Amino acid sequence: MLEVKNLSCGYGKECVLQDINFKLNDGDFVGVIGPNGSGKTTLLRGITRILKLNKGSVMLQKKDIAQMEFKDFARVIAVVPQSFNGNNLSVEEFILLGRIPHFSDMQFLESKKDLEIAHKCMKLTDTLRLKDKLMANISGGERQLALIARALTQEPKLLLLDEPTAHLDITHQVEIMDLLKKLNREFNLTVLMVLHDLNLASEYCHRLVLINEGRIYKEGPPKEILDYKVIEDVYKTVVIVQENPFSSKPYMLLVSEEERLKRGDK
At a CB cut-off of 8 Å and minimum separation 6, what does 14 contact? Predict the structure, then answer.
């Protein structure tokens, strides 16, 4: 599906990422984790051509993305960003924007087929009930569902998400992650997402890519990546890693400075 080869990119003269290499296969569900400033969002911007690569290439279905037409690219990859413009649009109008890559050359309005596809995606994401509301007037969790619905309306093969659970309460975090897992499982949608919450990353992702200081520190299944020594080395904080009694996935417990001092640890 996707192959990143020797990718280096950044902002102006600053090269944030260096020599990034990894592959995504059809049906993968992969999380990108790492400390703030490590280059996670920069990676998504390089993959989606927002940033020009200083070096390397990104191959999408064996085609170099730099050589692809926008419409061809947008029919395969859809992005769910952290922020958006569109507060003055209704939820339905906003989600229908996802059909633009499929418009014919002289098409200016949505067709019956476009509406059918959008409404199908709205039902999947439980946003059809919101279709007449303004994006500005819905909650953060509902807005995130609308962003996902717009991306699905593109009918992509690969979905990229930048911190889809940020600023959401635990109920909406689980709702979003369960939805993405369902789309991955039932529709074979390949998912690559940036996540800060290591426990969510562990519970839902097949594989993790840990980035530190602009390079891939380690890549593999959660049980290999979420080792307490690895986390302490990269995040510079003390954690206890245990096994989730239901899923057998690793989960992390934080240890405060106060508790460390009680036990004589520095």
Answer: none
CB atoms within 10 A of CB 49: 15
Question: What is the Cα–Cα distance from 159 to 198, expressed in whole angstroms?
Answer: 20
**For 142, phi and psi rounded to 5 degrees?**
-65, -40
Three-state DSSP class for residue 16: strand
Burial of 17 (0-12, 13-18, 19+ CB in 10 A): buried
CATH code of domain 1-76+156-222: 3.40.50.300
Query: Cβ distance 232 to 220 under 8 Å?
Result: no
Q: What is the DSSP string of 3-15?
A: EEEEEEEEETTEE
Euclidean distance between CA atoms 133 and 14, whole angstroms: 42
Report the distance separating Cα 165 and Cα 173, nearest Å: 5
Tokens of 74: 């947008």
**2-44 pLDDT tens trace:** 999 999 999 987 889 999 999 999 999 999 999 998 999 999 9
Predicted TM-score (pTM) of the model is 0.90
H helix runs in the chain, sequence order: 40-47, 70-74, 91-96, 112-124, 140-153, 170-187, 198-204, 222-225, 228-235, 257-262
Q: In the chain, where are the structural domains located?
A: 1-76+156-222, 87-155
The pLDDT of residue 258 is 84
CA–CA distance, 6 with 264 (Å, rounded to integer):
44
